[in-house]
């Protein structure tokens, strides 16, 4: 659902340099990933960004939730939702819709502004631009569950064999998660954006970048830039959509390249080891290359480091020492061996390298993400202190009691008032979300989940209520970490829900993993983590609205409408993908078009929690401890260097450890190498041709991401219709006969 690569103005493709000359690298910005990693994306402004931006015209009372804004935001959000399901199943993370929707919503609506089309023409300002962004973020929000917990349920066999028969169940789960996130985010807006933002250093980097970009777009006097952006992204979108469909009929020739496999097929059989380990293999994937173009070299090479460690160092060492084994998978060619198999009876005695490596990767990601949270521990202390002071002040007001003693109590009371009133709300009371609106939206999914999930999933209302409470707690964590660092730790909090729910649902007397236990853990963790992630994303959108002075009620209504679109759309997209590519829901398949890193992590963690004996070999858990300690040490070293002005320049050479761990959960180096190609290409482009890089980088990368995502929707339809590449195409050049 984290970058010093290029600045906000570069990503926008607009000539807005004069509007953002004061921009400097401050906080790293993140495209969401599903396991707590981050991918960098922009800069934040140097002036006081804890107050509304100057230069933005005040809200003039005109209607903002327009047909034009909602339709544009929903369409742009739907494109990102399609792309994110594809990207998430492939890589474990997805693109953020914030800047994409802000920039291209501006391009579309600016062209419609002077048209004569009813409902689509008329004045278009920065606040309506913000509404487009809010709608798009709502449309993307609940997609996280369909690249993590939901496919894991099918792989464990706890839902119907056919996903299309479960559309109602999936819709209900998405509805409950989305509405819960929508409800709890409203009171958090006042807390984390108005009252505690400065004290907790919550800059919400992407939300700030979007606000600065929107302001710059609407103060630019050159409308030709909007046309150029729209033209570039339209061409890129169309070309990459066609490319993704056409290449499916000859993927080994046009799409997936594996030079070592070609050498093997041409007679160089001695190179079979490099072939089986997947070395030097990449894809001409517009979405993955486009994502690589939007991340910095530190992020992409952190991913590459993780892949080299797992498939170039640790994996071969495990096989050579007998700690792990590979198995032949192609009867026609016994030389071809997979190191990705998951065979439950061999998890402890003779696991595959991928299973052995999975645990150090998961525990290291968990440890480093928790370290990031604990680094912000002073923020949680300040938040708790503020809560105590606020409650104390209100009790004194109600009872008429004065502070207990002298200057110290008076100072405490004054500080509480300062915390509450330090940042005035730019939104008048009549344009704020009504208490009955957000409270009813919060209460509704609780009731729906407690009643409906009992019959749909067989989960007790008490456990659902527990996960609703966990969703509230995780939202506090995600908003603080996301707001302070740009990292969305949704993968970490999801594992927390899995361990807590699994510890309660687990029956020590069970000799095997029960379907009911697996379903309880996965549904509960999906509900709580998805709601918390949704709250974090939407709080970031409220941050954009605060800086622009957008009415919060209009923003929230747009978020609601976008979420309702997502509730119906994203389950349908997932079902389409699952029907076209059955390996998504089948854990026994060793060759799949999708790496499924997050799905595999969710499934394996659930199995481990519920197993009578934790299924991990001794060597793997020992290495997990050592690797986790190393990861935490590197995180703390990076934090230390960032705080030292004379050392800060060296932080780019320190790897991003959550991303290293994420890469180690991906089944081969193919996806990671493709990302690195995109990142290296963008860096080279920016160095030698900076002007064209500034104008075209973001439109081309975004168009490629959206184009291939929608292209795979078309491809899925062709597969289901029986006219796909597997029937009428050729697998020539594909490793093991499959690409």
Describe the protein's architecture and organization.
It is found in: Membrane. One of its GO terms (cellular component) is fungal-type vacuole membrane. The chain crosses the membrane at residues 69-87, 134-155, 167-188, 235-257, 263-282, 294-314, 356-375, 438-457, 463-482, 560-581, 620-638, 659-684, 696-718. One of its GO terms (molecular function) is oligopeptide transmembrane transporter activity. There is one protein chain. The chain has 739 residues and is mainly alpha-helical. It has 2 domains: 8-49 and 62-379 and 425-737, no CATH class; 380-421. The chain has helices at 8-12, 67-91, 98-113, 126-140, 149-155, 167-195, 197-200, 205-219, 224-246, 251-254, 259-265, 272-276, 286-293, 297-321, 353-375, 377-399, 406-421, 435-456, 461-485, 490-505, 515-548, 552-580, 597-610, 618-642, 657-664, 670-688, 690-720, 725-728, and strands spanning 23-24, 44-45, 256-257, 282-283, 327-328, 337-338. It has a two-stranded antiparallel sheet. A two-stranded antiparallel sheet has the order 3-4. Strand 5 (327-328) and strand 6 (337-338) form a beta hairpin. Helix 13 packs across helix 26, helix 15 packs parallel to helix 24 (618-642) and helix 16 packs across helix 17 (406-421). The longest helix has 34 residues, at 515-548. 58% of the residues are buried.
What is this structure, in a nutshell?
This protein has 739 residues and is an all-alpha fold.
Q: Which stretches are low in confidence, meaning pLDDT under 50 for 5 or more residues running?
A: 1-46, 404-421
**Proportion in β-strands:** under 5%
Instruction: Write down the overall mean pLDDT.
Output: 83
Strand order of the largest sheet: 1-2
Question: Tally the helices: what do you get?
Answer: 28
Q: Could you tell me how far the N terminus lies from the C terminus, measured between alpha carbons in angstroms? A: 26 Å
Helix fraction, binned, reads 55-70%
Structural class: mainly alpha
Number of strands: 6
The largest β sheet comes out as: 2 strands, antiparallel
Query: If you compute it from the alpha carbons, what radius of gyration comes out, rounded to the nearest whole angstrom?
Result: 25 Å
Count up the domains.
2
Shape call: globular
């Amino acid at each position: 659902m984290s970058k010093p690569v290029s600045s906000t103005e570069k990503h926008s493709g607009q000539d807005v340099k004069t509007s953002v000359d004061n921009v400097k690298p401050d906080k790293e910005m993140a495209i969401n990933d599903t396991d707590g990693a981050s991918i960098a994306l922009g800069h934040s402004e140097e002036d006081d960004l804890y107050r509304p931006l100057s230069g933005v015209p005040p809200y003039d009372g005109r209607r903002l939730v327009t047909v034009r804004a909602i339709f544009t935001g929903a369409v742009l959000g739907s494109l990102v939702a399609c792309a994110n399901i594809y990207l998430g199943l492939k890589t474990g993370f997805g693109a953020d819709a914030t800047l994409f929707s802000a920039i291209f919503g501006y391009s579309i609506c600016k062209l419609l502004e002077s048209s004569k089309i009813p409902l689509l023409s008329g004045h278009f300002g920065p606040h309506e631009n913000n509404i487009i962004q809010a709608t798009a973020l709502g449309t993307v929000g609940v997609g996280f569950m369909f690249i993590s917990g939901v496919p894991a349920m099918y792989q464990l066999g706890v839902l119907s064999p056919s996903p299309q028969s479960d559309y109602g169940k999936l819709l209900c789960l998405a509805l409950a998660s989305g509405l819960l996130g929508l409800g709890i985010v409203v009171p958090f807006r006042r807390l984390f954006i108005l009252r505690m933002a400065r004290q907790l250093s919550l800059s919400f980097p992407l939300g700030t970048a979007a606000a600065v970009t929107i302001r710059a777009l609407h103060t630019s006097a050159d409308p030709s830039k909007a046309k150029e952006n729209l033209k570039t992204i339209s061409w890129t979108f169309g070309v990459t959509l066609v490319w993704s469909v056409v290449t499916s009929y000859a993927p080994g020739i046009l799409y997936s390249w594996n030079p070592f496999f070609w050498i093997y097929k041409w007679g160089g059989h001695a190179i079979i080891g490099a072939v089986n380990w997947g070395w030097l293999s990449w894809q001409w994937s517009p979405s993955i290359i486009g994502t690589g173009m939007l991340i910095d070299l530190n992020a992409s090479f952190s991913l590459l480091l993780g892949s080299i460690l797992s498939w170039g160092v640790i994996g071969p060492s495990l096989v050579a020492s007998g700690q792990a084994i590979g198995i032949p998978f192609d009867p026609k060619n016994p030389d071809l061996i997979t190191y990705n198999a998951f065979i439950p009876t061999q998890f402890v005695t003779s696991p595959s390298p991928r299973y052995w490596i999975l645990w150090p990767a998961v525990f290291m990601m968990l440890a480093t993400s928790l370290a990031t949270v604990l680094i912000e521990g002073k923020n949680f202390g300040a938040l708790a202190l503020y809560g105590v002071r606020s409650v104390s002040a209100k009790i004194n007001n109600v009872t008429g009691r004065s502070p207990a003693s002298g200057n110290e109590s008076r100072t405490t009371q004054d500080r509480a008032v300062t915390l509450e009133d330090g940042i005035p709300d730019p939104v008048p009371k009549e344009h704020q979300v009504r208490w009955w609106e957000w409270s009813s939206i919060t209460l509704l999914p609780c009731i729906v989940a407690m009643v409906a999930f009992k019959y749909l999933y067989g989960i007790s209302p008490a456990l659902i209520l527990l996960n609703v409470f966990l969703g509230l707690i995780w939202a506090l964590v995600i908003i603080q970490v996301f707001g302070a660092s740009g990292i969305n730790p949704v993968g970490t909090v999801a594992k927390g829900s899995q361990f807590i729910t699994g510890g309660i649902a687990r029956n020590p007397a069970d000799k095997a993993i029960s379907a009911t236990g697996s379903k309880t853990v996965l549904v509960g963790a999906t509900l709580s983590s998805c709601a918390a992630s949704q709250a974090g994303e939407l709080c970031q959108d409220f941050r954009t609205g605060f800086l622009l002075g957008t009415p919060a009620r209009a923003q929230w209504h747009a978020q609601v409408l976008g979420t309702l679109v997502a509730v119906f759309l994203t389950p349908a997209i997932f079902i389409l993908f699952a029907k076209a590519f059955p390996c998504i829901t089948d854990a026994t398949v060793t060759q799949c078009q999708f790496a499924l890193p997050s799905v595999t992590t969710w499934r394996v963690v659930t199995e481990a929690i519920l197993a009578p004996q934790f299924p991990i070999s001794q060597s793997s858990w020992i290495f997990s401890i050592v690797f986790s300690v190393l990861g935490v040490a590197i995180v703390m070293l990076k934090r230390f260097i960032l705080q030292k002005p004379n050392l800060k320049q060296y932080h780019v050479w320190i790897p991003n450890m959550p991303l290293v761990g994420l890469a180690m959960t991906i089944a081969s180096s193919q996806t990671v190498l493709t990302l690195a190609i995109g990142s290296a290409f963008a860096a080279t482009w920016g160095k030698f041709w900076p002007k064209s890089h500034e104008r075209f980088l973001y439109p081309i990368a975004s168009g490629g991401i959206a184009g291939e995502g929608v292209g795979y929707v078309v491809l899925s339809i062709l597969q289901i219709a029986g006219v796909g590449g597997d029937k009428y195409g050729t697998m020539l050049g594909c490793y093991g006969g499959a690409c």
